[in-house]
Amino acid sequence: MTQTSAGRRETMNTTCYMCACRCGIRVTLKDGEVRYLEGNPDHPINKGVICAKGASGIMKQHSPARLTRPLKRKAGAERGANAFEAISWDEAFALLEERLGNIRATDPKKFALFTGRDQMQALTGLFARQFGTPNYAAHGGFCSVNMAAGMIYTIGGSFWEFGGPDLDRAKLFVMIGTAEDHHSNPLKIAISKFKRNGGKFISVNPVRTGYSAIADEWVPIKPGTDGALFLAFIHTLIKQGLYDRDFLVQYTNAAQLVNMSKDSSEHGMFVRAEVPEEEGCFDPQNKLWWDRLSNKAVITHTPGVDPFLLGEFALPDGTKVKPSFQLLVDRVKDYTPEWASKITGIPAETIRRLANEMGVTARDQKIELPIAWTDIWGKDHETVTGNPVAFHAMRGLAAHSNGFHTIRALSILMSILGTIDRPGGFRHKAPFPRPIPPCAKTPKGPEAVQPNKPLDGLALGWPADPDDLFVDKEGTPVRIDKAFSWEYPLSVHGLMHNVITNAWRGDPYKIDTLMIFMANMAWNSTMNTVEVRKMLNDKDGNGEFKIPFIVVCDAFQSEMVAYADLVLPDTTYLERHDVMSMLDRPVSEFDGPMDSVRIPVVPPKGECKPFQDVLIELGSRLKFPAFVDTRGQRKFKNYPDFIINYEIEPGSGIGFLAGWRGKGGEKFMKGEPNPNQWEMYAKNNCLYHHVLPKSYQYMRNWNKGYLEWAQRHRLTRYAEPILIHIYSDILQQFRLAAQGKTQGKQPPAHLRRRIETYFDPLPFYYEPLESQLTDKRKYPLNAVTQRPMAMYHSWDSQNAWLRQIHTHNYLFVNPKTAAAEGIDDGNWVWVESPWGKVRGMCRYSEATEPGTVWTWNAIGKQPGAWNLEPRANEARKGFLLNHLISEELPPQPEGEYLSNSDPVTGQAGWYDVRVCLVKAGPDEEQVSSPQFDTLSPVPGEPTRHKNWLAYVTGKLMGT
Amino acid sequence: MIQLALVIDLNVCVGCHACVTSCKEWNTSGEAGYMSDDRPYGEDPTGNFFNRVQTFEVGEFPNTETVHFPKSCLHCEDPPCVPVCPTGASYKRPEDGIVLVDYDKCIGCKYCAWACPYGVREIDEHQKVMKKCTLCVDRIYDKSLPQAERKPACVMACPTNARLFGDVHDPDSEVSVAISENGGYALMPEWGTKPANHYLPRRKTRIKIHDDELMRADNPLKKEGVRPKPDVHEPSLDDVTSW
Amino acid sequence: MHPAFSVIFLTTLIGAGQGLFLALYTAQVYSTVELLPVPPSHFYVQGSAIALALLIGGLVASFFHLGHPERAWRSAARWRTSWLSREVIVLPALMGAVAVYGVVHHLNLRLKDLGFATSVDGDLALVVGAAAVALAFLLFLCTGMIYACIKFLQEWASWLTVVNYTLFGLASGFLLATAYAAYQAPALVYFFGAWTVIITLAVWVTRAASLIRNRRLKYKSTIQTAIGVRHARIVQKSQGFMGGSFNTRDFFHGAAPWLFRSIKWVFLVLVFPVPLVLLFNGMVDRSVPMLSSAFVIQYLGLLAERWYFFAQANHPQNIYYQTIS
Fold first, then answer.
1. In the structure, what pLDDT confidence band is assigned to residue A8 with cuts at 50, 70 and 90?
2. What is the mean pLDDT of residues A724-728?
3. Most buried residue, A178, A209, A857, C32, by most Cβ within 10 Å?
């Protein structure tokens, strides 16, 4: 054994950022150099464990792909050629200040800021708003906005950052459409404990890897058909009477009466009683129930009333009404297991059995906790009860153009089982639950965009009715991505996947500067990669770029960097301050709000500067009101100073960090700025965790104590109940607008049918849009992707350790499917869609549904990108399915350039693509296709170790 | 006599590779280091690891099991790699049963690797000595670490706690109990190497629902007034007979 | 197993060296009891020098196998348990004994020089040679047992391995002795040639026996025992890394199936019939070139044989390294 010298040893806590889970890490340094990174045992998120990525952070820190100097595209060089000259930060800032200053003074919407990471939105969103541009979003639109929107518009909360399965107490856990490592360490910890406690774990997924591998039962399903499965579950559960009636009555709108008169402008809306409507963004409690005892309509939640959930009734004025649950029953009547079986490929018997397992477990294994609480209507409860059936789902449902309704169906399934914010079911994480929909709103028209003024409203919001749409009088979108327009009304995370195409086409208008942070829009983060790369470099008749100026901020030399006019070198997570803020997507736990920070443990490499500091510098130079005082003097020295001193309103006491507020750190959530806040976080594992009293930890949609606590601490403005929307009359309002029955904004004629169809107040199953338009005999297979555990959500697959595990990808195919095309294990195959074709190697897998092919995403690389050698396996054998996926649907009556997205939310339909397989010919070159030009390193990039490498506490050995 | 070992629970291993890289991270700068990588950014990158996670598919669709299978030195009680070593560099510690390589004595003849049926020894191509899992012997006795952290790096890292560490000779230890209660087994028992590391098999939880459990007196459907009353004017027996 | 050329040269060179020495000694014994004419003493001196050169060549080759050849001296430490360690001790001992044997012949030393007078010519050489003979056979045992003792390398774990190593060494050495005799002591050509034929035919039989045995081998380790899962259909999907490792480089021969199969026929032809034909022809007219080429061709065949010996061995660890993805 080699004896290692002692050296000065110290440990520092910070927060990991190898993926988006934000585990606590402890960094041990020897003489100031990183000796090792490990999980922080005192951190509630990961409790000391760390994943493959987290343990490889050292190799990220020392990556040869690090950008270390600001770069300017060489005069005359094409975009994409990776030809740059290094410039100083002074030059970079001066250039940006002039360009962005001109835009802001003339037409702020010509600046667009899109970021790949959506856990920094509080600051990036503030910057965009202060700039005055509506053109801002993070990657949610192409990631999982259907999950957020579908659940938040139904139960007021969502999976992952804002809520999740309570596996501590669940007895049955159903995971659907979840990539093999989603919510990495926390979910792994929870699943393992759940299994060891004897729970049954069911995985519904076209492929069996990762978490699904250890499921007690794997239910292979055809991609994009999960909605049919959920509707059949609901059908079966209702038919058997296996639903939680009390829960539905008290805590959802299931018993509320819906106006059934076809001619009424209120058709399909809940009947409102004659009580004065309150101002505010919450569900007023002025709806009606039909009382079983008095056999008449009464205001909901009238004490002593037990309403009918089923039936049809007539109000005294003759209006026919039905409880919304009756409409659900009508809706699912034909959604039988046999019907779903044909669509999903799951035997009807299995569907029925699974539904019964859920229903009986929920009904017979009730949890009762001795926790007294009071509901918002003032009724005291001695216990908190729960039905121990928990679910988790993610992009497998979301990334389809029918995902919104699929996820609505899942939310309703979870609700009729009575599992929302109850022990053993789904639990919220602060600041959720929010009102349905949450209060944040975009402006309602183009007048909100004015020169030299902040945007009058938020760039992203939650439309509650058609009037909330961000369109002009003709219904034309105000945003470059057409979010919040009639094409995708509830696109609450924007449509980042259409920004480049729209900007290139000048539809709805041309922009000047596109700033991209940490998003590989010229590679694996874009659909239709080959064409999008051309658009990025395309010029008009005058030889000017169609997108005049592109700024990319990134820590690594990605494929996107090559297309920048200006490159800003970002730091790594070990070199910077960061906040996981309550204003953003905090790291809250089920038991209460929690936020956390990163603190630098090593100095920035070269001239790297954290993106946050760049934004604050620019905001100060451009004299945004939030960043300068009344005399125009800069308010914040840098990002850490900003975090301490910024308040959402001067004197409000609400800032980015909730912990240790007040002069001496004695307050939380609200309090004056504390100059020592960072130090206090550093001393406390870099997090602030407020554990709620037990009586506030459950039933938070309707928990008086919690809601009033949240109101007092300004998590929310209103302490009003958040009833679950089994039936969504928000959606119905859009449908009524499309039917011309409303006074307010109405869709343009060509979109009326689309809105009327897809804004159904109850979930329904339809085939994904692209499938509907594809010849399925020619393209019989679904193609999907996921990222492997060792690279999930990670931003550096060039990592020297991790790339040995996955250095290129295979196309996984069921052996029977492959053999039918004459394809052997290991053969080169073409995967063809109507939009393009790629060549890669096939790997047989019995853990793949026969109608599905899949591969690991984002392993394929452009030669030379990420400072890998041009012959690296990533470039020669790796391939992307992105080339097969179009960002737009073929022209159709509803529009020539409709996004390949969910018609409700604008969620990118990544997994809708249909493909066929063709064996590559014997004479073909054995490399992946398409191949791209080789990129050379850029100025300032560290030298790559060509032959060998070994890391010993800060020292890189090798040549 | 103490025999330290790992027990790996395949019932919860999701194949995340956390044990693979945490091992590398700890050991490359530790006493068992360094751990080199060849062509780290080039074609066919390859390097020295003490622990690998493999994946197997068992059965045919749709009855497929995907088994993730971490493997490192099993610290055999009768390690075939030790007696064959000509220099004594490969040895089994009497005090805790850990099989180690003394890098100063190793001549890099690779004979120990030939003599290991499990393929868990890897020569470092640059230090030119045989390397393998040490059970983080430079961690587990490190008094500067809190007691709870004196475990191999892979055990500390494992997010699903699929890796248990302890003395398999102590019948009351967590690892011995896990082996005896969960059907723990050793790999390739046919060679009599008596691996100290054990594996716990997959265990299935199933739910059995009897038909009569689906029919209940408190079925909520009974609460709904779904049976309409006939109109009073509809014909009835009263209209035709007086008895 | 991946055939390591340093080991192939080691075993074939020292085998020929051991065989040559044993041939020389046999000849001396025969001539002592007057079954053979007495060759000139330089015949033994130069023969021993050739045998020693082959042994040294083998030793040098072996150093290329080591990561740290400068520490090779350490490998004598574990002679109680390690056949490799034993080989490391016996090989230099044999080299010493062969050297002494040559020196004794060269100086024509007799036991009487040490104070024990006998009437036998070359008595001291016979005594020293007897020790060397024991060491030479011990070395065959050590070399063979290095492979035969690994019980899970089932192709190797057989007494046939030791027998084959011994007989191949003897055949090669006696053939070399035949050629050498044609050059230095033509009277002994038929003697060496006859023994070469006998030994070569013997090893033909024993090597064929091991080939037949290996073809019928039933492997005790299976993918089922390797991962402890009982199921008829288990397939590896990923070995856990894609760019290869020591375990994929050192334990797989990596040759195409056709090449692997043809190497077997190459050695079966080059080691047995071709040298025998050349030997017969060479003996008739005591042709040095013919007999030398018989030796060289057989030596090339032995290289192929040794390559095949490694390549044919299926290490059970290979079960763990089947697939990348």
1. confident
2. 98
3. A209
Q: Are residues A561 and A487 in the same domain?
A: yes
Residue C303 lies in a domain: yes
For A810, the domain range is 774-952
Interface contact B25, partner A, CB < 8 A: yes
For residues A852 and A939, membership in a common domain is answered with yes
Q: How far is C322 from chain A (nearest CA, A)?
A: 12
Residue C289 has pLDDT above 80, yes or no: yes
The reply to whether B16 touches chain C by the CB within 8 Å rule is no
Asked if A403 and A375 sit in the same domain, the reply is: yes
Task: Confirm or reject contact between B49 and chain C (CB < 8 A).
Answer: yes
The 10s digit of each residue's pLDDT in A255-286 is 999 999 999 999 999 999 865 655 678 888 89
**Single residue among A697, A727, A757 that ends a domain in this structure:** A727
Whether A676 is in a domain gets the answer no
What is the token pair recorded at C222? 């299976």
Architecture of domain B4-200: 2-Layer Sandwich (3.30)
ipTM: 0.96
- Mean pLDDT for C227-240 is 97
State whether residue B203 sits within 8 Å of chain C by CB.
Answer: no
* Percent of the residues in chain A that have a pLDDT greater than 70, as a whole number: 99
Which residue of chain B has the CA closest to C245?
B46
pLDDT score for A1: 41
Q: What are the residue ranges spanned by the domains of chain B? A: 4-200
Cα dihedral A212, A218, A222, A224 sign: negative
Would you say residue B228 has pLDDT above 70?
Answer: no
Domain extent, residue C281, equals 5-215+244-320
For residue A619, tell me if it sits in a domain. Answer: no
Is C225 among the domain residues? no
pLDDT at A536 over 90: yes
Confidence at residue A3, expressed as pLDDT on a 0 to 100 scale? 43
Q: Are residues A102 and A165 in the same domain?
A: no
Q: Does the residue A422 lie in any domain?
A: yes
| pLDDT surpassing 50 at residue C294 | yes
Interface test with B, best of C249, C320, C324 (most B CBs within 10 A): C320
Question: What is the residue-averaged pLDDT of chain A?
Answer: 96
SS3 annotation, chain C: CCCCHHHHHHHHHHHHHHHHHHHHHHHHHHHHCCCCCCCCHHHHHHHHHHHHHHHHHHHHHHHCCCCCHHHHHHHHCCCCCCHHHHHHHHHHHHHHHHHHHHHHHHHCCCHHHHCCCCCCCCHHHHHHHHHHHHHHHHHHHHHHHHHHCCCCCCCCCCHHHHHHHHHHHHHHHHHHHHHHHHHHCHHHHHHHHHHHHHHHHHHHHHHHHHHHHHHCCCCCCCHHHHHCCCCCCEEEEECCCCCCCHHHHCCCCCCCHHHHHHHHHHHHHHHCHHHHHHHHHHHHCCCHHHHHHHHHHHHHHHHHHHHHHHHCCCCHHHHHCCCCC
Would the CB atoms of A804 and C235 count as touching at under 8 Å?
Answer: no
Could you tell me if residue A745 is inside a domain?
no
pLDDT tens by residue, A806-849:
999 999 999 999 999 999 999 999 999 999 999 999 999 999 99
Residue type for position A813: V
CB-based burial, A540-563: b 16+ in 10 Å, e otherwise: eeeeebbbbbbbbbbbbbbbbbbb
- Find chain C residues with C-beta within 8 A of B201's C-beta: 228-229
Q: What is the pTM of this model?
A: 0.96
Contact call for A311 and B224, based on CB within 8 A: yes
User: What is the CATH number for C209?
Assistant: 1.20.1630
Interface of A with C in 796-815 (CB under 8 A): 804-808, 810, 812
Chain A: closest CA distance from residue B241 (Å): 34
Domain of A23: which CATH number? Answer: 3.30.200.210
Q: How far away is chain B from the Cα of A869, in angstroms, using its nearest Cα?
A: 5
